[in-house]
Amino acid sequence: MEKKKIWKDERVQAGVLVLAAFLLLTAWAFMQPLGAGPDEKMRYMVAQYLHEHPGKLPLGDEPTIRDATWGISYAYYPILSYMVSAVFMGIAGLFHASADGLLHAARMADVLFVTGAVYFVVKASGKLFPKEGRWLFAALAGFMPQALFLGTYVNTDSLALLSMAMILYSWSCYLEARDWSFRNSILLAVGMAVCALSYYNAYGWILCSFLFFCLTVLLCREEPVKQRVAFLLRRGIVIAAVTLALCGWWFIRNAVLYDGDLIGRKACAQCAEKYAAVDYRPSRYPTPEKLNWSWKDILLYQDPGWQHNWLLTVLVSFIGTFGLMQIYMPYSVSKAYFLFFGMGGIGILTMLGMFYPKKRTVVKERKAAGSEKLKIKTITVYDKWDRKGIFHLLLILLILIPVGLFMYYVYYSDNQAQGRYIMPALYPAMYFVTAGWNRLLERFVKKENIRMWIYRVLTALLAASPFLCYIFLVVPFYG
């Protein structure tokens, strides 16, 4: 009897999910050879440099880590992820680890980043959704096969996932408490700082965090305007100070080294123009813009090595495509995910009121008028702002920003059909899918017991998906 109570404890259930993610990520990271993920060899060179030169950060054009084809190194991009990898490599080096041992040690940083992301997603799920719905969101957002794959090789996307999960959890804490506690404000600041030092395509989370904090303080606090502004400035200064203290050093360093180029993008392009192979220099590289392609040409383009056209390749690799984009999930499984997403989208279409930024009540009545029965719908809109409505609008923005950045990058820089570039949209997109399923199940499945088992089956299938990918796709490929 006591054992049953333990397994019903939500903390135990959450711990099991996080532990399962950690074990899968570790096994996956240890069995893959070097270069099993996109650009891992280039990224690992930065971690190796940091390991071999303790206390010294490489310049972006450092010859020993510069790729001969592209003419650049990943030292132009934020390197916090590689710095943590180097720490693990240093620990492994104390035990005279082999080359493979050092690689595995470097990957443990990414394993822990994504494990941490799963932890914060599970924590946030309990504040965003009630009962069984929370586990559906945790499995859907935390165990998306592609998201877990990002934790199995050396990269910075894994750190971005962790930062986004931290920020999501901070937002969910605010929604539950209805105010910004000092502790939660510090968590938000740390999440934004980590995000700034992860991957540029995740920066929408920093912008939306700024908007969410300002809007909820100015519009939703129930106190005189002067006090709201005072709190905004007082607490906002603390958040900004912590954020800048943790991440500002990187951008100051860039500005000093690269003539005021805070994020190093211009310096990186100049380096590529100077050192890249002729056909890979930015001035010569064939982008869709230079080829005068329309977006129809891009979306329908199919490389000879791809199983799908450009659009489908992006979508299936958002769900899960492993290795160097050569280990595909069965297309029928991808279709099942698409169907699942689509059903959630249909559910959202029936609850568009969630996007109204002001509080409102909807009352539906049936009244008889003579021999006719009339449906009367009354909507009352209040002057008070709805923090949940603001939250939902910003989630939409969090989907649009990475998609927009990705499309810009594809058209003007490099036509990469990889779903990982829109991974910052994962958590908000899966939030809406979960909310849509909640609405459909509540509306069409009236028996709570049946609804509960539907939730459980869906959650189990989604959580099992990356394990099945590892067992039936990844292991045979490298075995």
The radius of gyration is 24 Å
Largest sheet: 2 strands, antiparallel
Share of helical residues: 55-70%
How would the global form be characterised?
Answer: globular
Number of helices: 18
Give me the count of strands.
4
Strand arrangement across the biggest beta sheet: 1-2
* Mean pLDDT score: 94
Distance between the termini: 43 Å
Strand content is 5-15%
Oligomer: single chain
The run of helices and strands is: HHHHHHHHHHHHHHEEHEEHHH
Ranges where pLDDT stays below 50 over 5 or more residues in a row are none
What structural category arises from helix and sheet content? mainly alpha
Descriptive report:
- By secondary structure, the protein is mainly α.
- It has helices at 2-8, 10-31, 40-52, 80-93, 99-128, 132-142, 145-149, 157-177, 182-196, 204-220, 225-257, 265-275, 295-300, 310-320, 331-349, 387-412, 426-444, 448-478, and strands at residues 321-322, 327-328, 358-369, 372-385.
- The protein contains 18 helices and 4 strands.
- The strands form 2 sheets. A two-stranded antiparallel sheet has the order 1-2. Strands 3-4 form a two-stranded antiparallel sheet.
- A hairpin with a 4-residue loop joins strand 1 (321-322) and strand 2.
- Helix 10 (204-220) runs antiparallel to helix 11.
- 42% of the residues are buried.
- The model has no long low-confidence stretch (mean pLDDT 94).
